[in-house]
Amino acid sequence: MRLRILAFLCCAALLTAGEDPFEAPPELQAFARQHTLIQMGVRAKLDYLVKAFFAPESEGGLGITYDNAYTRTPVEAWRDRKANCLTLTMLYVAACKQLDINARYGESLRVSRWRRLGTTVRYERHVVAVIQVGLVGQELVADFLPEVHQQSQMIALLSPERVRALFHSNRAVELLAENRSEEALQSARQAIAVDPGTGVGWNILGVVQRSLGQEAEAEHAFLQALAKDPKDGAPYGNMENLLRAQGREAEAQSYRDRGMEARKKDPFFNAFLAEEAMQVGLWDEAQKRIKQAISLLPRESDFYLMQARVNLAQGQRKAAIKALENARKWALPDMQALYDTKLALLRGEIPA
């Protein structure tokens, strides 16, 4: 089976030359000022602005719903009232600019996801807005849960060029999913033109080129991706699959080994492997992988929920209860009641 490993996903349309994916809706300034006018401090303005994005239109808000199927521009998000994290961040940063608040882009290094869609494995990361308040080092993070909170994540700041490249990379993936490979090729090349240093753009370019039968070009693109970011596991997997398809087994195994080494410290990749092992009943392997994920990121509630599922499959009821207690401990407040119910069921306190 051939797997294509893509990054940053978070009916796609190709932007024409000269179109700016950062362009703000003309109504945005009035909207931002209306919802923050009486607020005194920067934090209050930021908090009210986030709430206004998600408040129902009947209450004067935008009523935006999360939609990761298509990466919209801020203008499209305003029109459709739908957006993924990248588009929401673009819209939010634009709104902050209308309020003379300096907001920057960032990537949350502790929020990512590997998931399989057919023969494609997608690696999705999370883009946020970072706003400095008060003294240097005091920052707020808008990550559209929705909430604004003190920085508790590991954040890597992103330049506007990198964010623009990510936008075009997302569009390339979406166009490829619609079998519009030639248009996807244009979007992937736009990503590289905007930010030649992005490994993500080169990796996606290689995937698109391979879909078009351009294997030599795809191999070059994957090698460029690895040169730009040797820690990114996605191009290793794509190189491995390309080389195996060509019968270059020794080279393919080398890239597999290097890819596993690069990804072994990624908690979300270990959780992905645990999920895959669970689907085929390899419970010992699933237990090993989810324990590794937890050791790397011990405050991720979803990992403990997965561990509880593995424990139950292995008949380890007490261990499952302990795992669920940890899941509840690190869950968001609005999820804790759900974990209370799961724990009560598992302890036999309420009938199943």
CATH architecture of the largest domain: Roll
What Rg, in angstroms, do the CA atoms define? 22 Å
Low-confidence stretches: 1-11, 145-152
Mean pLDDT: 82
Order of helices and strands: EHHEHEHEEEEEHHHHHHHHHHH
From the structure above, extract its key features.
352 residues; alpha/beta; C8orf32 fold; Serine Threonine Protein Phosphatase 5, Tetratricopeptide repeat; 3 domains; 6-stranded mixed β-sheet; two-stranded parallel sheet; 57% helix; disordered N terminus
Structural overview:
By secondary structure, this protein is of the alpha/beta class. The chain has three domains: 4-165, C8orf32 fold (Roll), CATH 3.10.620; 175-263, Serine Threonine Protein Phosphatase 5, Tetratricopeptide repeat (Alpha Horseshoe); 267-347, Serine Threonine Protein Phosphatase 5, Tetratricopeptide repeat (Alpha Horseshoe), CATH 1.25.40.10. Helices cover 57% and strands 13% of the residues. It has 15 helices and eight strands. The strands form two sheets. Strands 1, 4, 5, 6, 7 and 8 form a six-stranded mixed beta sheet that branches. The chain has a two-stranded parallel sheet with strand order 2-3. Helix 3 (74-80) links the parallel strand 2 (65-66) and strand 3. Helix 5 packs antiparallel against helix 6. It is flat and about 60 Å long. The model is unreliable at 1-11 and 145-152 (pLDDT under 50).
